[in-house]
């Protein structure tokens, strides 16, 4: 009886210890997540500081460049027009002048732009921290299939940023700056409005190019299928062409330059979803 009592007490103690470990495990996860967030925030602050230090180069050579008539996209558009025998005057026939209304406006814009620049530059490290947090929860085969996830997500993000900067931004600026409801109304563009438009388009481009990654995970859990994507392919094409028509000048060449990469991105997403579904069916057949 004494031995049985001892055994019961011992198992009770073990049970309490296991419960305590489980609770600590959950708290440890929260602590780990907190440190990943802190490390990401520090990296963003470091790159934001560098961006603020080199703000002259960033502003004059990068941010303000798309508003000028001799921007790279405008020059390439003129050359493409000459190659295909299509008359084109390019974008931004005259430089866009910006104004500032608030006393602290330029300083606040400079700081905000540095923070956004810091996030863009630190994106690979932020993705690495995010991946380091979720990686232990994956099975071994899932880790193998997700090899290079950080590099792929970072690459797609930077491609999307460049796509937004070199294509969406100049076309949008050209159309919006030249739009007029009456000759009696003169456009005076505030620097806050300009930087808000540029940064939102650039970040949106980077996020949009993460579509293949999103499709991969949604297909992995069975929420999205290639059949669904193929079924609404034509509808998606129409939407993409409408978006391209809205943000580009009223000519076919400009619309095609913007719409083709978006269509290719959609087709890549269908291919990824199809590959995930084939792999799932193969595993089911093996079982």
Oligomeric form of this entry?
A: single chain
**SS field, number of helical segments:** 12
| Mean of residue pLDDT values | 81
Helix % is: over 70%
Q: Which ranges are low-confidence, i.e. pLDDT below 50, for 5 or more consecutive residues?
A: 1-24
The side-by-side strand order for the widest beta sheet comes to 1-2
Structural class: mainly alpha
Description:
Helices cover 77% and strands 1% of the residues. With 287 residues, the chain is an all-alpha fold. The protein folds into two domains: 15-170 and 181-206, no CATH class; 210-287, no CATH class. Strands 1-2 form a two-stranded parallel ribbon. The protein is flat and about 70 Å long.
Key words describing this protein structure:
287 residues; 77% helix; mainly alpha; two-stranded parallel ribbon; 12 helices
């Amino acid at each position: 009886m004494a031995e049985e009592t001892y055994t019961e007490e011992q198992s009770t103690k073990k049970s309490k210890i296991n419960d305590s470990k489980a609770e600590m495990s959950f708290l440890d996860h929260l602590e780990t997540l907190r440190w990943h967030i802190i490390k990401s925030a520090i990296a963003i602050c470091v790159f934001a500081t560098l961006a603020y230090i080199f703000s002259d180069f960033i502003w004059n050579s990068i941010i303000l460049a798309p508003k000028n008539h001799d921007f790279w996209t405008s020059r390439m558009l003129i050359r493409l027009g000459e190659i295909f025998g299509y008359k084109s005057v390019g974008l931004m026939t005259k430089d866009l002048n910006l104004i500032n209304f608030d006393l602290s406006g330029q300083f606040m814009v400079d700081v905000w732009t540095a923070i956004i620049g810091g996030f863009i530059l630190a994106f690979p490290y932020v993705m690495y921290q995010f991946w380091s947090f979720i990686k232990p929860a994956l099975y071994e085969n899932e880790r193998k299939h997700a090899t290079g996830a950080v590099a792929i997500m970072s690459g797609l993000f930077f491609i999307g940023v460049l796509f937004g900067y070199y294509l969406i931004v100049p076309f949008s600026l050209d159309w919006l700056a030249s739009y007029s409801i009456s000759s009696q109304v003169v456009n005076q563009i505030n620097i806050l409005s300009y930087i808000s438009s540029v940064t939102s388009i650039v970040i949106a481009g980077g996020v949009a190019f993460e579509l293949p990654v999103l499709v991969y995970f949604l297909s992995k859990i069975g929420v999205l299928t290639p059949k669904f994507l193929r079924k609404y392919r034509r509808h998606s094409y129409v939407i993409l062409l409408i978006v391209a028509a809205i943000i580009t000048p009223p000519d076919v060449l400009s619309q095609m330059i913007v719409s083709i990469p978006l269509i290719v991105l959609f087709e890549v997403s269908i291919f990824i979803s199809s590959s995930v579904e084939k792999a799932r069916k193969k595993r089911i057949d093996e079982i």
